[in-house]
Design brief:
This protein is of the alpha+beta class. The chain is built from 22 helices and 25 strands. It is 30% helix and 19% strand. The strands form seven sheets. Strands 6, 15, 17, 18, 20 and 21 form a six-stranded antiparallel beta sheet that branches. Strands 11-10-9-12-13-14 form a six-stranded mixed beta sheet, sandwiched between helices. 48% of the residues are buried.
Length: 753
């Protein structure tokens, strides 16, 4: 079998292979990790047969000798010639891999994603999940496949349930704030953050042709995602944080204040890392990049570092603990261990957290980077799963001295609000990855900042001088604002900073003397003129990683701090954010600046630009549309709401008794019994659409700008002229879709063939 040919013939596998090589993995190891889809039970069981030492190389050599030609042929060969693999692995190899797991067969456990197994060891293997008698759900879609389970043919559907109808994504609601008077609110206080999670969410939404809602656009996290050049400023200054400010003109009596709080880069020599891996059914989605994320983390380890690996689904399992890395060659053997993991069951994340912190406490090393790294979609539907319960759990566990990094990945079933709770209250950082490019940026390039915590409970407070500022508006940070008195109240927690991490804040300032020309007059509270020739003061309060005592640093904001590309870039990103939010906060000056940056792509000249991310974000922003909106002041803009909270009672896609499962099962029954366009194939009860009755979505693709779909069958919207998003493709049957398999006929996206 020519593995290289198969990999090079598949865009995503080739991209994964090249990235793994760039991390330093050998050619054979990179081929195997790129060739097989992570978490599929049959390939995981196959990997477990091979000895641990040089496992990936041995698998490669075995694959080369296979008398087959394609990836699908290799899967068929494995199933035909190793049909008893799952049973053999459970009886023989499983006690070695999972000593605490009950190796007995015959039980049935349904969980998120549809990972179910019963008495027949080959019940079904497809998309990393099994079934015993019914439809299999992986990620958020209905997988169309036929198999034998418990001795009879399993009826399956060729139609795929629209994942948008069953999506249970949840986000913390964002409500935009108005400007505040300096007379009544002289200080602005908020939790500082280095998080970039919102950008990963937005990019994933666009890649999959989904709309973006206001609660998915956290302005401060988009600002943090990009780089800013302060190399020559504060050179040689010894402080835990460096505070940079810039002031640029915005319009008549308005200015934009740019603040960047950057932590010192202080890496540690050794790492004690506990990897906590979600292996529940929902993680079988094709939109996850789990193996790429794991390979990146493992590649950062060096000789003498300590690694533990825990997985959780219905139960938690310790793959290995307190493993001392022997050198570079050991890293591929660790990845070989990871290749033996398969996906199944519910999501008992709280049990995994308990085990991870217990192991972390035992392996804790003074002076090292002691870190739990959680990789999950956040769909915790078993054990402790409420936000309050998770908050209490993680606040108790952080007392061990272990810090938390959360890496989110997944689509349609993504619980951003729960992952925010875990990261905020666990002294943790948070990023979202769903593509190799995301992994390169958020894990590979930012690994030290992601995992090496140098300060916790970082808060900022800005006091404005009423002699020069009448009103101000903090742009973003809606869910991170604090009261004035919270700043020096050490019982009020905030978020941590990783080594070299930076957090950016923007203010829209209404200039003028608030004392002489007050916007409002108070009877008893009168402000006296002052002699300070400064715009204000930025103060940052924080605690050392293992301390409960706060420290504070501050920086005066001069009247005319110079404006550079840093403030221009931040302003440009702010305008993009508000545009994507469909916000009414953009004024004429904002539109003028946005148009100026878009014209002739002037923004590309700014330092810190990440072209890949901007290409996706800017596909929603057309110069003609911006011009029209500037004229209309955004009055007509409406958007289809995005799910922000799960359905009441929902405990996941396959949660026991959840309405989401009931909805999907009802859809199955309705299709099987009442759909006249379906006919019987592949055994009793199996159905698929008759070719002559397949009806394409007559309305066409939905425009992301005006939400119109009628008549959109070309490359541009028939109503407003917006280009069709790259993620939306037209199947040869005529159906428009953004998912990887046509919901109408099951045909794969051309680039995925």
């Amino acid at each position: 079998m020519d593995i290289k040919f198969e990999i090079n013939d598949h865009i995503l596998k080739k991209e994964k292979y090249e990235y793994l090589l760039s991390l330093g993995y050998g050619d054979k190891a990179a081929c195997v990790m790129a060739f097989f889809d992570y978490g599929e039970m049959d390939t995981a069981c196959l990997a477990a047969i091979f000895p641990r030492e040089n496992r990936l190389d041995r698998i490669y050599d075995w694959l080369v000798e296979l008398p087959v030609f394609t990836y699908s042929d290799s899967r068929k060969y494995i199933k035909e010639h190793f049909s008893d693999l799952p049973e053999r692995i459970r009886k023989e190899a499983e006690p070695l891999l999972f000593p605490e797991r009950n190796p007995q067969m015959g039980y049935v456990q349904a969980g998120a994603g549809g990972a179910v197994y019963g008495g027949n060891p080959m019940a079904m293997m497809a998309g990393g999940a099994m079934m015993t008698g019914g439809a299999m759900m992986a990620g958020g879609g209905m997988m169309a496949a036929a198999s034998m389970a418990n001795g009879f043919a399993v009826p399956t559907l060729a139609k795929i349930v629209d994942p948008e109808q069953t999506a249970t994504d949840s986000y913390e609601l964002i409500e935009e704030k108005d400007a505040k008077s300096v007379l009544t609110s002289p200080t602005s206080t908020f939790r500082m953050t280095t998080s970039t999670a919102s950008v990963g969410i937005m990019l994933n939404q666009y890649r999959n042709g989904r709309g973006i809602g206001i609660s998915q656009v956290r302005i401060e996290e988009l600002l943090n995602y990009f780089d800013y050049d302060h190399a020559t400023e504060n050179a040689g200054k010894k402080a835990p944080f460096k505070i940079y400010t810039e002031l640029m003109d915005k319009g008549d009596k308005k200015k934009l204040l740019y603040i960047n709080v950057e932590a010192d880069d202080t890496p540690k020599e050794h790492q004690n890392i506990v990897l906590l891996l979600d292996t529940s059914g929902s993680m079988s989605s094709q939109e996850t990049v789990t193996i790429e994320s794991l390979a990146t983390i493992v590649s950062k380890l060096k000789e003498g570092d300590v690694l533990s690996l825990i997985t959780y689904s219905t139960e938690d399992h310790t793959i290995f603990s307190n493993h001392v890395v022997l050198g570079h060659g050991d890293l591929e053997d660790i990845m070989g261990d990871i290749m033996t993991i398969w996906i199944e069951g519910c999501t008992n994340g709280s049990a995994g957290i308990e085990t991870a912190y217990s192991i972390g406490e035992k392996t804790y090393k003074d002076g090292w980077n002691n870190q739990v790294i959680l990789i999950t979609d956040g769909d915790l539907n078993f054990g402790i799963n409420s936000k309050d319960g998770l908050k209490n759990l993680i606040e108790e566990k952080k007392k061990t001295g272990m810090f938390l990094s959360v890496i989110g990945t997944g689509l349609y079933n993504y619980k951003d609000d729960k992952l925010e709770v875990l990261s905020k209250h666990g002294n943790g950082t948070y990023c979202v990855v769903n593509d190799v490019e995301d992994v390169k940026e958020s894990i590979d390039r930012r690994f030290v900042s992601l995992t090496n915590i140098v300060a916790k409970d970082v808060k900022a407070q800005v006091e404005f001088n009423p002699k020069y500022v009448q009103k101000y508006r903090l742009l973003g940070y809606e869910n991170r604002t604090l009261n004035h008195e919270d700043f020096r109240n050490d019982a009020v927690i905030s978020e941590p900073y990783g080594s070299g991490g930076h957090g950016v804040a923007l203010y829209e300032l209404y200039m003028g003397n608030a004392v002489e020309e007050p916007a409002e007059t108070l009877k008893y509270q009168r402000m006296m003129p002052n002699d300070y020739e400064e715009l204000g003061t930025v103060s940052v309060r924080f605690k050392a990683p293992l301390s409960d005592v706060s420290e504070e640093v501050s920086e005066i904001i001069p009247l005319s701090p110079k404006a550079t590309d840093n403030s221009k870039l931040a302003y440009f990103l702010y305008c993009i954010s508000e545009f994507l939010r469909k916000s009414d906060k953009l004024d004429d000056d904002d539109y003028a600046f946005l148009l100026d940056m878009l014209t002739d792509e002037k923004y590309k000249s700014l330092a810190g630009i990440k072209q890949y991310a901007l290409d996706l974000l800017l596909q929603e922003i057309d110069i003609d549309i911006v011009t029209k909106l500037r004229e209309k002041h955004y009055v007509d803009m409406t958007d289809r709401p995005v799910n922000q909270t799960p359905m009441n009672g929902s405990i996941g896609m396959m949660g026991q008794g959840g309405p989401m499962m009931n909805l999907m099962m009802q859809q199955m029954m309705q299709q099987q019994s009442a759909d006249p366009t379906l006919h019987m194939v592949d055994g009793p009860g199996s159905q698929k659409p008759k070719p002559e009755n397949r009806v394409p979505n007559a309305g066409g693709w939905t425009c992301p700008n005006c939400r119109c779909s009628e008549g959109n069958h070309g490359k541009f919207c028939a109503t407003c002229g917006t280009p069709r998003p790259k993620e939306i493709w037209q199947c040869k049957c005529g159906y428009f879709t953004s998912v990887k398999f046509c919901p109408n006929c099951g045909e794969p996206k051309p680039t995925e063939k």
